[in-house]
Amino acid sequence: SHVMSEYGRMTDTERDQIDQDAQVFMRTCADAIHLLRTEAHKGVQSAQVKEHRTAVLDFIEDYLKRVCKLYSEQRAIRVKRVIDKKRL
């Protein structure tokens, strides 16, 4: 109980740092997917391989978009709580 109360709360600075790191990470992932998409078809002759790689990259990109959406929703909740707290 004592340990949880001492370490269970993050400071606003820690939350801001996590937000900043998360945004950098999501941007890095999006850039990596884009780069991989451009490299995926170089030298490939088979239409089936191209189609497979495109489908895999589409799936990965969709997953990243869903993660980003979830992150944005959670961040919006945190911002709303901060605003509500300031109003009180």
TrEMBL record:
<keyword id="KW-0812">Transmembrane</keyword>
<keyword id="KW-0175">Coiled coil</keyword>
<dbReference type="GO" id="GO:0031201">
    <property type="term" value="C:SNARE complex"/>
</dbReference>
<dbReference type="GO" id="GO:0005783">
    <property type="term" value="C:endoplasmic reticulum"/>
</dbReference>
<keyword id="KW-0653">Protein transport</keyword>
<dbReference type="GO" id="GO:0006890">
    <property type="term" value="P:retrograde vesicle-mediated transport, Golgi to endoplasmic reticulum"/>
</dbReference>
<protein>
    <submittedName>
        <fullName>STX18 protein</fullName>
    </submittedName>
</protein>
<keyword id="KW-1133">Transmembrane helix</keyword>
<dbReference type="GO" id="GO:0015031">
    <property type="term" value="P:protein transport"/>
</dbReference>
<keyword id="KW-0472">Membrane</keyword>
<keyword id="KW-0813">Transport</keyword>
<comment type="similarity">
    <text>Belongs to the syntaxin family.</text>
</comment>
